[in-house]
Automatic annotation (TrEMBL):
Organism: Methylorubrum suomiense
Occurrences of domain Photolyase/cryptochrome alpha/beta (ranges): 21-152
Cofactor(s) it depends on: (6R)-5,10-methylene-5,6,7,8-tetrahydrofolate
Listed transmembrane segments: none
One Pfam family linked to the record: DNA_photolyase
Name the record gives this protein: Photolyase/cryptochrome alpha/beta domain-containing protein
InterPro entries cross-referenced by the UniProt entry: Crypto/Photolyase_FAD-like_sf (IPR036134), Crypto/Photolyase_N_sf (IPR036155), DNA_photolyase_N (IPR006050), Photolyase_Class-2 (IPR052219), Rossmann-like_a/b/a_fold (IPR014729)
Xref: SUPFAM superfamilies: Cryptochrome/photolyase FAD-binding domain (SSF48173), Cryptochrome/photolyase, N-terminal domain (SSF52425)
Top-level taxon of the source organism: Bacteria
Length: 463
């Protein structure tokens, strides 16, 4: 199956260099060797030119580390990259992991490349890397969207107000992008000589110890990185827990979650691959499939739309709609029933028992069910001296502890707590007309059952 043209952007329209040594692919957002259209396009171009493929990755640590990333995030990522290196070697493709920013690594290696293929990414730091690469290379430059179902500009040319405005646009388009991506055969295989500065990722734990990282948040046992683990989890979910997903997805104790978000965040599995598996699942019914695809495509790609069209998506002033900022400002001086410091919140030392349980799951296992994430965020707003401080603390805790933090979904979901992609509701103290969530929402599921599940998960983290 051909890669859809809407997925491919030509950033530099230069003819391929005649004395080049390879076709270069900078793997950054799509950290996988399977179902990766950028990789497959690089192979197609290399086969056409009679050249081998070189896949590179720029690894940041120390003072240049990825913002807010810590040992927890890097352990998961390196597990995935170790699998990538082994899978590429089996296909006859060289993988080079180098210390440095992705732009530094790509610009240096592009000097010997016939062309350079990039992933697509929408965070500010990613867009800055790609802009630096565009200015710094002289070879042909292609960028391939591999981590949403419908490319962002294809789905919509503007910032969408809510899921209801984006949903029909995606529904009209997504069938043409839900196609199997077959792996291409590599014609020119084997190692590429004179490559220097590579890091050995075959033992991710050993490499992790050599990096200078924030070690205050450690790795988790609950999630192992890599496409293989993502595929295993997806298969298990579809075979054992998908039946009744539509009705059970908002019940944390029900186990009706696929836990794909960490793998999607690091690009270790394709959303197209997931969607095709969901459509083909023998379990579940139409409601289950519709509910899952709503979360995977509509909600997730609404977040991509927001980040793409919003400069300062991580800022209270620029991420929120005007009506929300206005109503929160009008109630900024309302008395708060309780105030907690960021440290107290992080340690789960509040008066709200089940909020503390959810915080424990997040802090110790790197995950929290979506139903609890909404409640968790709304309470931080209620317990903060100002909405601006609440927004900042919510985002810092989110990005620090969640494996899927620092993601378009994360930035968008935190902003949703403060009114993004929502409408005005009944006016209340502190919240104004921003949606409120009370302790009564805990009655919608088995909170004690959820606590028991969290206790088991956290005990398992101890080994």
């Amino acid at each position: 199956m051909a890669i859809q043209s809407d997925r491919i952007r030509v950033l530099r329209d230069e003819p391929p260099g005649e004395d080049a040594d390879y076709v270069l692919y900078l793997m950054q957002q799509s950290q996988r060797a399977a179902f990766n259209p950028a990789l497959e396009l690089a192979i197609e171009e290399a086969n056409r030119l009679g050249l081998p493929v070189l896949v590179c990755f720029g690894l940041l640590d120390g003072a240049n580390g990825f913002p807010e990333a810590n040992v927890r995030h890097y352990a998961f990522m390196l597990q995935g990259l170790s699998e990538v290196a082994a899978a590429l070697e089996k296909r006859g493709i060289t993988f080079l992991l180098r210390r440095g920013t992705p732009s530094e690594v790509a610009i240096d290696l592009a000097k010997r490349a016939a062309l350079l293929v990039l992933d697509r990414g929408y965070l500010t730091i990613q867009r800055r890397w790609y802009a630096e690469i565009e200015k710094g290379v002289e070879c042909r430059l292609l960028q391939v969207e591999g981590d949403v179902v419908v490319p962002v500009e294809t789905a919509s040319q503007k910032h969408e107000y809510a899921a209801r405005t984006l949903r029909p646009k995606l529904n009209r388009k997504w069938d043409e992008f839900l196609n199997v991506l077959r792996p291409r055969k590599v014609k020119m295989s084997g190692p590429i000589p004179k490559l220097k500065g590579g890091l050995d990722v075959s033992d991710p734990d050993k490499l992790l110890k050599k990096l200078t990282l924030d070690a205050t948040v450690g790795p988790v046992r609950r999630f192992k990185g890599g496409h293989g683990e993502a595929s295993r989890r997806l298969t298990t979910f579809l075979n054992e827990a998908f039946e009744g997903y539509g009705a059970g997805r908002n019940k944390p104790e029900a186990g009706a979650a696929s836990h794909m978000s960490p793998y999607l965040h690091f690009g270790q599995i394709s959303p197209v691959e997931i969607a095709l598996a969901v459509r083909a699942a023998k379990s579940g019914d139409t409601d289950d499939r519709s509910a899952y695809l709503e979360e995977l495509i509509v909600r997730r790609e609404l977040a991509m739309n927001h980040v793409f069209h919003t400069d300062g998506y991580d800022s209270y002033e620029t991420a929120l709609p005007d009506w929300a900022k206005k109503t929160l400002a009008e109630h900024a001086d309302d008395p708060r029933p309780r105030l907690y410091s960021e440290t107290e919140l992080a340690e789960g030392k509040t008066h709200d028992h089940y909020w503390n349980v959810a915080m424990r799951e997040m802090r110790e296992t790197g995950y929290m069910h979506n139903q609890l994430r909404m409640y968790w965020g709304k309470k931080i707003l209620e317990w903060s001296p100002s909405p601006e401080e609440g927004f900042a603390v919510t985002l810092r805790l989110n990005n620090r502890y969640f494996l899927d933090g620092r993601d378009a979904n994360s930035f968008t979901n935190v902003a949703w707590v403060y009114g993004l992609h929502d409408r005005p509701w009944q006016t209340r103290k502190i919240f104004g007309s921003v949606r409120y969530q009370s302790e009564n929402s805990l009655k919608k599921f088995d909170a004690k059952g959820y606590e028991r599940a969290v206790t088991r998960l956290c005990e398992a983290e101890k080994g």
